[in-house]
Design goal:
Layout: H1 4-17, E1 30-35, H2 48-64, E2 68-70, H3 81-90, H4 94-102, H5 107-112, H6 116-133, H7 149-164, E3 168-178, E4 183-184, E5 198-207, E6 213-219, E7 230-233, E8 239-244, E9 247-252, H8 253-259, E10 265-271, H9 273-278, E11 280-282, E12 288-293, E13 305-308, H10 314-325, E14 338-339, H11 348-355, H12 364-381, E15 383-384, H13 394-407, E16 411-417, E17 431-442, H14 446-457, E18 460-462, H15 467-476, E19 479-481, E20 483-484, E21 499-500, H16 510-519, H17 529-537, H18 542-549, H19 553-566, E22 570-575, H20 579-593, E23 602-606, E24 609-611, E25 614-615, H21 626-633, H22 635-644, E26 652-654, H23 656-675, H24 686-707, H25 711-731, H26 737-751, H27 756-765, H28 787-814, E27 820-825, H29 830-840, H30 843-852, H31 862-871, H32 886-904, E28 907-912, E29 930-934
Parallel strand pairs: 1-2, 1-22, 6-9, 7-12, 18-23, 22-23, 24-26, 27-28
Antiparallel strand pairs: 3-4, 3-17, 5-6, 5-16, 7-13, 8-9, 8-10, 11-12, 14-15, 17-19, 20-21, 24-25, 27-29
This protein binds one RNA strand of 90 nucleotides through α12, α15, β19, β20 and α20.
RNA sequence: GCAGGGGUGGCAGAGCCUGGCCAAAUGCGACGGGCUUAGGACCCGCUUCCUUUAGUGGAUGCAAGAGUUCAAAUCUCUUCCCCUGCACCA
């Protein structure tokens, strides 16, 4: 058993002592890599290893490739989670306490966690410790927390710049809202962490006949407004008549309670449902329509009043039919507003009810099913038939008609909570509140968007298949609310009552790493915008800036140099879940604020981590704290499993079994390294050349893989395949000390990015005194890669397999093991003929070749050749060209006869087909000798 | 609904871009054997079906269906299914 823990702490101390990972300006090319900084409100678990570990693998690889690498780390304290944490802790939230217990947070610490800053600092220390133990090659000197005042100075500069470019705009904005606590609520503030999903909907106003008032109906399908035959209310609901924006409006009492957070509602007076039923409204065509009782109308949904379109809505149709059955509403007939080309439904709603195998008397579920079917079909295929919109696709008409109605003040927009009910943690139902005067970053700005799209072309995205998601995100992102009423962070310069929202203050913070260690002790008031504009944009000169701000000339100059040096060749790493917000905003802000040469060069996204096949979650209790993982399994093993266990885009799976597999293989390699001294070095044999060929091929493929961040392929090549190759080498009686040493030395370096501690240990076990972590990445000698030698070895395996099969059959007859096996290698003329067929996939090619009577086939029996060629018929598609000649084949079998006979347990001999008297001789093919077993 | 990613053998997971060395790598599991007092570890074999008591043969097969091709897991089209995101939340 390898002492991973001892090895890891030893090398971590050595690296630290040698200051191996401190990034300092040099004349080498720079490589600047950042991973999205962690939120310090909990310790890390092994899932976090995915992103940071991936970043570290790249940092380490690039270092070995000779680049001057800077890999810094900081912490994101901005926003509400830490405040929420403090609040939950104060209330002794049992879930939170359990979670913290699982992470081994001591009780006495919990008592001290009343101050948000204390909480942040505690977890900053905790996370940093975990990252160090994971072996990340981080330059810790640049560490900061995003709620530190000097960082705020930087963010203030950023927002000043955004404002100068007119990217900050003000407007209305809907948010989930708790009426009890008077707070905006996001997913983290609701029971069961439900996101309050807000949707914009159209509410159509229908004038009440003989009154200066309206009934308000919320609808998903404003385009069907021309098919309205009546309105529906719920006989048992309570209704009110109130004043909205100066107009008199009827709606359900429940709706008025909810909508008052987004509309100016006053003077409510109760109206009995029976009263509602006696009124008539004016339809789109100016004719009066009745208000009827709808069995399906829910007072909690929308406004409690529904516009009825029996032609296109199965519920409306059913309600009308049921009324008709009782003798009401007999004069109502459906009005079609659209049709699906090729489908000639008289009443579409009825047609879909039939499709759902029901009718107007169906259950709610059945009618719901019909509704979904109809909605889907009509959205996809529907074309409008009503005047003014003829032929227009339904989805287009939906937007057009809604816009037209609003323009004619016949409708208004409402925000509705889609997934009601959502409850705040305090127990109250969440509503939608429309906030006025909300500040936004306008990512919808056309010019900015275009420029960002242009910039995106220059960014390398890994894995490449996530590129499309980025394109979609860049297109889609629009207004982004930027100011929040509560939370930690930087005050919004244009309105200091608000705090800058946490994703918005982390879009260009990577630049801050280049100077954080230099300005940490600079007086806050000196960190003026001019200073940042000089450092990041080169505006002004150091003398002037120093004088203006009071910052030492030397510091000003060093900041600029540091930024200029590091901020060129940048790589950004994060989880796939951040494509649609952080990463897209990262690109946008760079484009807006920095010079083109500072724009992102590479973005890498990775999936998450499953624990024993399940998503890690508190309720499942399968979260493995990072420290626990390291304690139990070691950093190297979990690094390997989590980071290299799946391709970048997929979730990787953490399991004890996988860890065990890696452990066994590393142990296998390590044992070989320690036994090397006892191995002699003799003349190179076939199998030695084979191992060299495999090694050099591996160096090429592993380098390509890691360069493309195909980490699974890289890991498979350097560990899994290596073990298979070494096993085969030893099975084949390979025993050359020099060859194995070369192989293992290269492996140590190839493994260094992913299992840095073990690689370091291996490297030193081989007698080296340098650090593997900063050694030169191995380069392949392409001349040592030999297809011929590898295919000969493959051939040998094939021969042995075939022989075993033959022996197995023979044993049934003879009842004993064979005394000897004779191989008969295919006649010389078979190779060109086989290759001709393999190359062209046509028998004809061989026939042509034989007819043309070339030098190599002279003197052989044409009839036999033709027979052989024809016999290849069925194998045409699987035949492969071979470079292995009959002489090679003879030699291989002779040289390997000891090996073959050790496996088969009998004597082995070989002869040429030309010399053979065996009846089986003609069965020989190139690479597949005939087999004659003797008993 | 919109957008993105997927569907491969008992399971996980390569292969797909660049069609043919693909009955499909590798690992796990199952099974048989060796080793062992036993278990673990390790080693060997096997893991679609049929055929063959001298072999490397055949059939079916990579979500379903159709197409292109001498040739399809791989290319094209259609359908079905699964996962993720959809904003003020880090």
């Amino acid at each position: 058993m390898i002492d991973y823990k001892g090895i890891e702490s030893k090398w971590q101390a050595e690296w630290e002592k040698a200051r191996l990972f401190e990034g300092n300006i040099s004349d080498k090319e720079s490589y600047f890599i950042t991973v999205a900084f962690p939120y310090p409100n909990a310790p890390q678990h092994i899932g976090h290893l995915r992103a940071y570990g991936t970043g570290d693998v790249i940092a380490r690889y690039k270092r070995m490739k000779g680049l001057n690498v800077l890999f810094p780390m900081a912490f994101h304290g901005t926003g509400t989670p830490i405040l929420a944490f403090a609040k939950r802790l104060k209330n002794n939230d049992p879930d939170l306490i359990n979670e913290l217990k699982m992470f081994h947070v001591p009780d006495e610490e919990l008592k001290k966690m009343t101050d948000p800053l204390y909480i942040a600092n505690y977890f900053v220390a905790e996370i940093e410790n975990g990252m160090r133990r994971a072996g990340y090659s981080i330059d810790w000197r640049r560490k900061f927390v995003s709620i530190e005042p000097f960082f705020s100075k930087f963010i203030e500069w950023q927002f000043k710049m955004l404002n100068e470019k007119n990217y900050l705009v003000k407007g209305r904005h809907p948010v989930g809202w708790c009426p009890n606590e008077n707070n905006a609520v996001g997913m983290h503030d609701t029971k069961h962490d439900v996101e309050p999903e807000i949707e914009k909907q159209t509410a159509v106003k229908f004038k009440v006949e003989g009154e200066e008032s309206y009934m308000l109906c919320v609808t998903y399908r404003p385009e069907t407004v021309y098919g309205v035959t009546n309105l529906f209310v719920n006989e048992e609901a309570e209704y009110v008549k109130c004043t909205i924006n100066g107009e008199s409006i009827y709606l359900s009492k429940a709706a008025s309670e909810v909508l008052k957070y987004q509309l100016d509602i006053s003077q409510a007076e109760d109206v009995a449902p029976q009263e509602m039923l006696q009124k008539r409204c004016i339809g789109m065509d100016g004719k009066a329509i009745p208000v009827l009782s709808g069995f399906f109308v829910d007072k909690e949904i929308g406004t409690g009043i529904v516009m009825s379109v029996p032609a296109h809505a199965p519920f409306d149709y059913s309600a009308i039919e049921r009324l008709k059955a009782k003798g009401y509403a007999t004069d109502i007939s459906p009005i079609k507003v659209l049709e699906i080309p090729g489908k000639d439904y008289e009443i579409p709603a009825l047609a879909y009810l039939k499709m759902a195998q029901t009718d107007a008397n169906g259950t709610m579920e059945e009618i719901e099913k019909a509704t979904k079917l109809e909605y889907r079909d009509e959205s996809h295929l529907g074309k409008m038939t009503i005047k003014g919109y003829e032929g227009m696709p339904e989805t287009e008409a939906r937007e057009r008609i809604a816009a037209d109605l609003i323009k004619g003040s016949k409708a208004m927009e409402l925000y509705i909570l889609v997934n009601i009910p959502v409850y705040c943690r305090c127990g109250y139902g969440v509503v939608v509140k429309v906030v006025d005067n909300q500040w936004f970053i306008n990512y919808g700005d056309k010019e900015w968007k275009e420029k960002t799209k242009e910039a995106f072309k220059g960014i390398r995205i890994l894995p490449p298949k996530s590129r499309k998601a980025f394109e979609a995100a860049i297109d889609w992102i629009d207004l982004r609310a930027v100011a929040r009423a509560q939370g930690l962070g930087t005050r919004f310069p244009l309105d200091p009552n608000y705090i800058i929202e946490s994703l918005s203050d982390s879009t260009i913070y990577m630049a801050f790493y280049t100077i954080s260690h230099l300005i940490r002790n600079v007086k806050l008031e000196s960190l003026k915008p001019e200073f940042f504009s000089y450092v990041f944009l080169g505006e002004g000169n150091p003398e002037e800036i120093s004088k203006l701000t009071g910052i030492d000339y030397d510091i000003v100059k060093r900041c600029k140099e540091s930024f200029d040096y590091w901020y060129l060749n940048t790589s950004r790493h994060s989880g796939v879940d951040l494509i649609f917000n952080h990463l897209t905003m990262y690109i946008y802000n760079h484009v807006a604020l920095l010079e083109q040469k500072r724009w992102p060069k590479q973005i890498v996204v990775n999936g998450s981590v499953l624990s024993e096949g399940e998503k890690m979650s508190k309720s499942l209790g399968n979260i493995v704290p990072l420290i626990d993982g390291i304690e139990k399994y070691s950093a190297d093993l979990i690094r390997f499993v989590v980071v290299a266990g799946a391709d970048l885009f997929s979730d990787s799976e953490f399991s004890a079994d996988a860890v065990k597999g890696v452990d066994e293989r590393l142990t296998f390699v390590y044992d070989i390294a320690r036994k090397l001294d006892s191995m002699e070095s003799t003349e190179l044999t076939h199998i030695d050349y084979w191992l060299y060929s495999k090694l050099n091929r591996k160096i090429i493929s592993a380098s390509e893989s890691i360069e493309q961040l195909e980490l699974r392929a890289y890991a498979t090549a350097v560990l899994y395949d290596s073990v298979l190759e070494l096993r085969r080498y030893f099975n084949r009686k390979g025993a050359n000390g020099i060859v194995v040493r070369d192989y293992v030395s290269a492996l140590a370096l190839l493994l260094s990015p992913i299992t840095p501690h073990m690689a370091e240990e291996l490297w030193h076990a081989l007698g080296n005194s340098t650090f593997a972590s900063v050694e030169k990445w191995p380069t392949a000698n392409p001349e040592m890669v030999s297809d011929r030698i590898e295919s000969e070895e493959g051939m040998l395996d094939g021969i042995i397999d075939d022989t075993k099969a033959v022996i197995e059959l023979m044993k049934r007859k003879h009842g004993s093991d064979p005394k000897s096996v004779r191989y008969i290698t295919a006649a010389k003329w078979k190779m060109p003929i086989t290759n001709a067929v393999a190359g062209s996939k046509k028998i004809g090619a061989a026939v042509e070749l034989i007819k043309s009577d070339p030098e190599e086939l002279k003197g052989f029996d044409k009839g036999r050749m033709m027979a052989y060629a024809t016999g290849l018929g069925k194998k045409v598609n699987s035949l492969q060209k071979t470079e292995v000649t009959q002489d090679d084949e003879m030699k291989l079998i002779v040289e390997s006869s000891a090996y073959i006979s050790s496996i088969l347990n009998c004597e082995v001999s070989v002869e040429r087909e030309e010399d053979s008297k065996s009846a089986r001789a003609s069965a020989a093919m190139p690479g597949r000798p005939a087999i004659e077993a003797e008993f």
